[in-house]
Amino acid sequence: MFAFILSRIVQSVPVMLAVALIAFVLFSFVGDPIATMLGQEFTPEQRDALVAALGLDQSIPVQFIRFVGNALRGEFGLSYRLSRPVADLIVERAPATLELAFCASLVALAVGVPMGVYTGLYRRSWISRAFLTFSLIGVSLPTFLIGILLILVFSVWLSWLPSFGRGDTVQLGWWSTGLLTASGLKALVLPSITLGLFQLTLIMRLVRSEMLEVLRSDYVKFARARGLRDRSIHFGHALRNTLVPVITIVGLQLGSIIAFSIVTETVFQWPGMGLLFIQSVSSADIPVMAAYLLLIAAIFVTINLLVDLLYYAVDPRLRAGRGH
Questions:
Q1: What residues form DSSP beta bridges with 171?
Q2: What's the domain count of the chain?
Q3: I need a labelling partner for 289 at 20 to 30 A (CA). Which of 40, 70, 240, 266 fits?
Q4: pLDDT tens, 143-202?
Q5: Is residue 79 part of a domain?
Q6: Does residue 160 sit in helix, strand or coil?
Q7: pTM to 2 decimals?
Q8: 115: containing domain
Q9: Which residues, 6+ apart, have CB-to-CB distance to 103 below 8 Å?
Q10: d(CA 312, CA 324)
Q11: Among candidates 212, 158, 166, 213, which has minimal Cα distance to 186?
């Protein structure tokens, strides 16, 4: 197990270095940080002092090594737009994005898996056809349009749920959460559905196809020949084997939810990292953009490692294969 983990970590190092190089190029060659931070009027002495403070007077390789070293320590410099440490901005905004991603993933799993199981077991029923039609709509409509439609129905017409913001939050150390307040829970509903709808339909279709394949397998036929009840076959044998590939998809989709929450956070003005990134793009705030890029890459690498470990633990064939 230790060798397996070590090999995955070693494989992720070149990926992170490549992303760091892209972020460094973005950081160093896009825009003019001196003019952004000092404004239009500054003296040559002020410019030289800021160039030295930012390390821009050093060679490119030295700047890249310094950039990687600072990134490993969680230091990404100052935001050009807000004149605050980027790490502090990320720490402030990360709870909102992670909370939204967690709730969206929970919605996708809690609804997608039962729908997939039902459409796999009762594929000829009208409810299954309705679910499949719903999944086509969920895949086809763009995220921003889904969010706008939900706001129109539930916020404008029915006035049931808020259309923007995060509601009241509670501070637990450095973590801020809206899960402990009524307004915070209400504010989570529409963004979570919007962000999780595509993943929900993907999980539903994946579970359905896997269920259909497993139900046609020989060991399920043998279980029926032994006289086992349908409930035992469906949930004790078929569903258990169906969830093995679902683990991989769900893990990868969690990274996608975090990375592509930008649109949802913009539509609902959700104060997370995605909205911070959009605001940084509009003002060419390169340190925030570079930090966001590195953070998303680190999240994907970490999730891939966790998925590999979970897959390794669930599927005995992988352990048996490494033993030979």
A1: 176
A2: 2
A3: 40
A4: 889 999 999 999 999 999 999 889 899 988 888 899 999 999 999 999 999 999 988 888
A5: no
A6: coil
A7: 0.81
A8: 87-323
A9: 188, 192, 196
A10: 15
A11: 166
